[in-house]
């Protein structure tokens, strides 16, 4: 099963467009946990178990593990998700962006070491930085397009040679030239619903959008869903991380994470029904 097939299956079987981000900050772990690598893995497994009934997949952010020297714990976490929830895809949030053999090694890191179903990448260095990932035809490549941070406008709104903003030029290149095996998606932030709608119009219904920015970043769920869903009412991985992970630091942290994940899933589904 390809990444796209697995994702489409999860949208249907889970009745969810919620992607749960796994960004373990040692300083924000529950008070009962020590700040160490073992606790990081225990915490992330607990979040996965709590939120899996309400999610269409998981998005571990590699920097939160690498900064702790916890790469092996990330490998164990990905293996746990594959073994326990094999129907839910893993999107490794790495935002890699290099060329040639370096990009090949980044692809091997994501797809072989961590067994990710998809990985986020940066298009700044052009097709050379994307092409090595295409060799894994069953895996996904999620390309930065219109990011949720305010500073993204510094470059993403620069006009291309055709007079359109760079983020729309990226969307067109991915849809028309780079997506040769139908395995690409785009990152478009929930904090900019007007741009989400423009990207969806540009790329059509088939391409999935990874949409960060709801929850702690304040993206509006109804506006996000209205702007980015496809004709089938799916087409999006709406990511929430901190709001779910750190819903509570007390003994009830798993129950509270499950509650917030469920409520977020329900809010998304309510917006889909409008």
UniProtKB/TrEMBL annotation:
Reaction(s) catalysed (UniProt annotation): orotidine 5'-phosphate + H(+) = UMP + CO2
CDD domains: OMP_decarboxylase_like (cd04725)
Keyword Lyase: yes
Domain Orotidine 5'-phosphate decarboxylase: 17-257
InterPro entries xrefs: Aldolase_TIM, OMPdecase_AS, OMPdecase_type-2, OMPdeCOase_dom, RibuloseP-bd_barrel
SMART domains, per the entry: OMPdecase
GO molecular function: orotidine-5'-phosphate decarboxylase activity
Pathway: Pyrimidine metabolism; UMP biosynthesis via de novo pathway; UMP from orotate: step 2/2
Residues making up the signal peptide according to the UniProt record: none
EC number(s) given by UniProt: 4.1.1.23
Top-rank taxon, per record: Bacteria
This protein's UniProt keywords: Decarboxylase, Lyase, Pyrimidine biosynthesis
Active-site annotation: 95 (proton donor)
Single Gene Ontology BP annotation: 'de novo' UMP biosynthetic process
Family: Belongs to the OMP decarboxylase family. Type 2 subfamily.
NCBIfam families associated with the record: pyrF_sub2
Name of the featured protein: Orotidine 5'-phosphate decarboxylase
Species of provenance: Advenella kashmirensis W13003
